[in-house]
Design brief:
By secondary structure, the protein is mainly alpha-helical. It has one domain (2-106). It has five helices and two strands. Helix 1 (2-20) crosses helix 5 and helix 4 (65-80) packs across helix 5 (89-109). The two termini are 16 Å apart.
């Protein structure tokens, strides 16, 4: 149940990103939901691998390269999905930053899972 709620909140966060940034667009609600799933999968599977591979650059830039990595992944997902559009790399960086802040804010509003 929590996974479904997080997925819906991530789609809402992506929709809010499209309202805040003119360089990021989704065609319809279904595209927002699909993009939220793909962004979640990319952040869970591909991002950790890329983080390990780019760790020396990340250390040298004091972590600022993570903004580049997040922007590239956000932009890359948009290039793969037909209903999700990002106009360029810098819109990808801005979109990834705003999307991360919104998803963090939404997830902090959710009650914590009860451990049994």
């Amino acid at each position: 149940m929590r996974v479904l709620l997080v997925w819906i909140l991530n789609a809402v966060a992506l929709w809010l990103v499209t309202l805040l940034l003119p360089g990021v667009r989704v065609d319809d609600e279904l595209s927002a939901f699909i993009a939220a799933i793909v962004l979640g999968l990319v952040n869970a599977v591909i991002k950790p691998v890329l983080f390990i591979l780019t760790l020396p650059v990340t250390v040298l830039t004091l972590g600022l390269f993570l903004l580049v990595l997040n922007g590239l992944l956000f932009w890359g997902v948009a290039s793969l999905l037909p209903g999700f559009h990002v106009d360029g790399f810098w819109w990808g960086v801005g979109g990834a930053l705003v999307y991360s802040l919104l998803t963090w804010a939404f997830s902090s509003l959710l009650p914590q899972q009860v451990r049994r």
